[in-house]
Amino acid sequence: MSTVWAKVRKAPCKKERAEIMSMSEHAARRCQQRGIHPNIVDVVRQYGTPTDRPGNAVAYHLARNDCQLLIAQLKRQIHVLEKASKIVVVESNKGAVLTTYPDAGIERNKRSLKQQSVCCIRKNR
To answer: What is the Cα–Cα distance from 56 to 76, expressed in whole angstroms?
Structure first.
């Protein structure tokens, strides 16, 4: 599970992307002509398998198996995040976890929404 967290990174903003990836005018033109978004280029470079090419170049290819493995890892991470969104973690100022508990605010909000919808139904009758 820890490998998932290590591989996934926050998507860079435009300014960060420009610093991370430099692209020749030729490549930018070809991407535009072929409908390939710069985010796709970032993903292939980040997760693809590198292959040496002539002229001190490296080609990246994202194989179908690699893609399926990455999708499975991201789905697991989404599942963990959905569960984590319902939990509160209390930490000491030294960084030790003191306790954890379900976020009661979520249940309260659900009940509130149900009560509001019931009230609206009764008013419409």
So the answer is: 37
- How many residues belong to the chain? 125
Q: Alpha-carbon distance 31 to 33, whole Å? A: 6
Q: Are strands 87-91 and 57-61 parallel, antiparallel or unpaired?
A: unpaired
Residue 41 in contact with residue 23, Cβ under 8 Å? yes
Please report, for the chain, the start and end positions of each structural domain, with discontinuous segments joined by +: 1-85, 87-125
pLDDT in tens, 22-59: 899 999 999 999 999 999 999 999 989 999 999 999 99
CB 85 within 8 A of CB 71: no
pLDDT digits (tens, 9 = 90+) for 49-87: 999 999 999 999 999 988 999 999 999 999 999 999 999
